[in-house]
Amino acid sequence: MEAAAAAAGTGPYAAGTLDARCARLPFALGRQPGRRSRALAHGNDAARRPARARPRAASRWRAACRLRTARHMRALAATAAPRDGAERRAREAYAFTTVGEWVAADRTRRRSAAEERERMRAEREWVLARGDRPQIRGYRDDAVGIAGRDARRDDANALPFGGPATAAAAVLTAPQEIACWTHEATRGASDDAVREVLRFGDRSGLRELRSPRTPLALCEEFPVGLVAGQRFERERAPDEVLRALAWARVPLSDVRVASHRRPLAQLLETAALPARAWTFDACLIDGTLFLNEAPAPQLPAVAGASARELRYLRAVYASQRFEAACTTPSGDVAEAASTEFFSLVGFHLGPFAIACASEVDAVDPRTGEYVELKLFASAHADAAGLDDRDEGTRAGLGRQGKCDAQRRAAAATRKLLLYRHPRWWAQCVLSGVSEVRAGAIDEHDVLRAVRHVRVGDLAAMSTRGLRKLRWHESRGAQGDSGASNDAPFDPGAATRFAAEALGFIDGVCAAHPGESVRVRYAPRAGDRASQMVTCTVGEGSPLLPKMIRATLDDM
């Protein structure tokens, strides 16, 4: 049916949407062309008989394994007809399954797996009540693998369906630090001359955490402070990761994926934030997949900026002021922005051994653990800001003003639980950070309090917070914030999607080694084709493979 749609030029597999070969890939169709489909293609009537029913667990296990492997992509590339140079440089598009359909299917699989575990637990308790030795097939007292552990507790990074082999293939292991370095950027006599220095093994750029005073007006000097303390923007390329691996004497053959944190964090956030677009480049060289983040957009000028751009500039400056207040004695933005500390960690995401570099904001001097600094709009901070107003202003708010404040508070809480928490979790687990210092600001960008949040508690906090919002909405206390239709983010689903999407990207790059591939996710409402993670060969930056090979030659 898909091939007919592609031939007719209609549907999601039209020639203008996907490549002709993409319609035959299991990554796009979500299935594997096995012996039955091949027999049907050759006109074997015997294959048209109904297929034998298979156990659901086995089918799920096979489907998960097929999505994670790149063997089908390599076999297809090996059997393809040779192409000349001009045709090889032509852009070829590949598409992963839509994010919404993947999340719905993943929830169905988790629900079915939970029901199966509950049935097995009830059957085991019934056998134990009889006093007999449990003899349930496929179950052992030691609870093999992550699937057994998940029956007793909620493991955030587990894959609780399909058996231990499938579960172990989608686990995000704890990051271990491999190397570190300090990056310094100083300007010379001319504003355009920027001198950058990388000192590997140097921890002088790691600042100790301080407690800022509250309340603190973060945008008091805006916009003058933004111009004076604007961060030196630069593109963080994977050549820094290569040099750090060489400094730590880690062979490149032991690393399957090398990248900075942003591309991997975007993959982890997609399952929880399906409406957020992102773009990065990928390239496979010498068996290692390199991910290169897209260049950060330049900050717009304050003069002539629109109201939306001014709000963005205020948010950027408030974040810089908060980081400076928490890490420097003087709270100077320029001092905090001139030096950056990076940590290179190694971990496994499914079958991939990953080396990920990330910037570290501060270190807690009491525990020695890295800390991430974040800002968020808090309803309690707005309530604290009312105490600073005079009595006449508070009395003039009236009942309508109180209801509006409650609705704004519910919307701010919903944004924190559904959008901030998934991003904080993804960024922290990729850099080995276990604690977030979250600054609560009011509507006037005044810092009211600093909260200590453990990264492992973010998912549970989102679940409890959404449950509380639904309870308030049912009583009509805070209006309709939309929380009744929202589900808390699932770290396990985010990990599984990132592992499968990374396997898809690796398969496309393996079919085109040494070429830059543009990985894009730009969802639009009502457009199914735009809701797929697409890989386009020949559209990425041509400088990426040249830069990697030049770095490898210098090492």
From TrEMBL:
One of its GO terms (cellular component) is nucleus. One of its GO terms (molecular function) is metal ion binding. It is found in: Nucleus. It holds the Pfam family RAI1. InterPro entries: RAI1, RAI1-like_fam. Residues 49-59 have a biased composition (Basic residues). Keywords: Hydrolase, Metal-binding, Nuclease, Nucleotide-binding, Nucleus, RNA-binding. Its cofactor is a divalent metal cation. GO terms for biological process: NAD-cap decapping; nuclear-transcribed mRNA catabolic process. Its EC number is 3.6.1.-. It is an enzyme of class 3 (hydrolase). Residues 34-59 are annotated as: Disordered. Residues 195-377 form the RAI1-like domain. Decapping enzyme for NAD-capped RNAs: specifically hydrolyzes the nicotinamide adenine dinucleotide (NAD) cap from a subset of RNAs by removing the entire NAD moiety from the 5'-end of an NAD-capped RNA. Belongs to the DXO/Dom3Z family. PANTHER family: DECAPPING AND EXORIBONUCLEASE PROTEIN, DOM-3 RELATED. This is Decapping nuclease. It comes from Prasinoderma coloniale.
